[in-house]
Design goal:
The complex is a heterodimer of chains A (208) and B (128). Helices cover 48% and strands 7% of the residues of chain A. Chain A has 208 residues and is mainly alpha-helical. Chain B is of the alpha/beta class. Helices cover 44% and strands 16% of the residues of chain B. Chain B contains 4 helices and 4 strands; from the N terminus they run αβαβαβαβ. Classes of the chains: A mainly alpha (208), B alpha/beta (128). At the A-B interface, α1, β1, α2, α3 and α4 of A face α1, β1, α2, α4 and β4 of B.
Chain lengths: 208, 128
């Protein structure tokens, strides 16, 4: 059973934070970014991990699940950066994968008061597993920051759209991403995004 | 793969170039920088720039106070503006942007890393 929490604006919370609100921030600030001699935009999400999405439900109104929202945010970020980089040829857009970083994100994952026993147990297991993986394979947040700053300041990232792995490898072609690009989905996803931006919003808290 | 050593060297060289008096002031906007990777990235970047301006979008100015002090200690020449906003709301993002647009001519760095782990069912979890 999947519960969905919508914001008061009617967007699903995780989707809003990882994609729509980030793109709104970028969209609003584009005029100022254009005036910088070397503007850089970094979204730390999941670059390089593009997968097929629900083509008939871009906004996940009918098919929301925890994994799908990750897949949609990931592909949509890469496609949007592809689209915007063609409009704004002086701005560098980087979609970055952080990999495992030893932040306390998972450690602070607390079950909601309404949780049942099984959910509580699941979260405890998930938290321990994530903690173990971060310990074994993760880097410190300082090390990750060094890489992020490199993306912001190194000259190799010329204007354009870049996807970068957690080891700072520049990722080239991707079968899935190229298929979507070939079908004109960079424009399509941007149109969807602008539609969401322009949709009148009710401030009620009812859930879909 | 780009070696960590190479990355540190490149960042060091960039920081040195910023000491040049002719370098223009950098304007940075961060969302998701009150914890985790974002917070660490601001700490690193603020040490490298000359008289930078940082806009930090986050949920609580009160909770940001100690972080602000730490950042100012790292680079006393920096200017830090905290914009209180619920990042999950488009209207809050708009309000934050209005303040930036009213005050600045340009933006050089936009860094977005607000986090969430979409596993917590009805109360999709957010870092505090």
């Amino acid at each position: 059973m999947v519960f969905i929490l919508d914001t008061v604006e009617g967007l699903e919370l995780c989707f809003a934070i990882s994609y729509y609100c980030r793109m709104r921030l970028l969209y609003n600030l584009l005029p100022l970014l254009r005036r910088s001699p070397q503007a850089r935009v970094v979204s730390v999400l999941n670059g390089g991990k593009e997968k097929r999405i629900q083509d008939d439900d871009i906004g996940l109104h009918r098919h929301w699940s925890p994994l799908r929202v990750v897949d949609h945010s990931t592909l949509m970020t890469s496609l949007t950066f592809d689209y915007l980089s063609k409009q704004d040829k002086n701005i560098t857009f980087l979609h970055v994968s952080p990999g495992w970083v030893r932040t306390d994100n998972f450690a602070r994952l607390e079950p909601p008061a309404s949780s049942g026993l099984i959910w509580r147990l699941f979260l405890i297991i998930l938290r321990s597993l994530a903690g173990l993986l971060a310990l074994l394979f993760g880097v410190s947040s300082e090390q990750s920051a060094e890489r992020q700053v490199f993306y912001l300041t190194n000259g190799i990232y010329r204007p354009g759209a870049w996807r970068v792995s957690h080891k700072s490898e520049v990722l080239g072609e991707s079968r899935v991403l190229d298929m979507y690009k070939g079908r004109g989905w960079s424009e399509r996803v941007w149109e969807h995004t602008v539609d969401v931006f322009e949709k009148p919003r009710s401030k009620d808290t009812s859930k879909t | 793969m780009v070696s960590f050593h190479h990355i540190c060297q490149s960042n060091g060289r960039f920081a040195l170039r910023q000491q040049d008096a002719n370098v223009t002031q950098s304007i940075c906007v961060f969302a998701g920088a009150t914890s985790g990777i974002g917070a660490a990235t601001v700490e690193r970047l603020i040490c490298m720039l000359h008289e930078p301006v940082f806009y930090i979008i986050g949920r609580s100015a009160k909770r940001f106070a100690s972080q602000r002090n730490r950042l100012l200690a790292l680079n006393p020449s920096s200017k830090i503006i905290f914009l209180e906003a619920q990042f999950s709301l488009l209207s809050d993002v708009d309000s934050a942007c209005k303040q930036i647009v009213a005050a600045e001519e340009k933006i050089d760095y936009l860094f977005m890393s607000p986090g969430m782990i979409p596993v917590n069912g009805p109360e999709c979890w957010l870092p505090p």
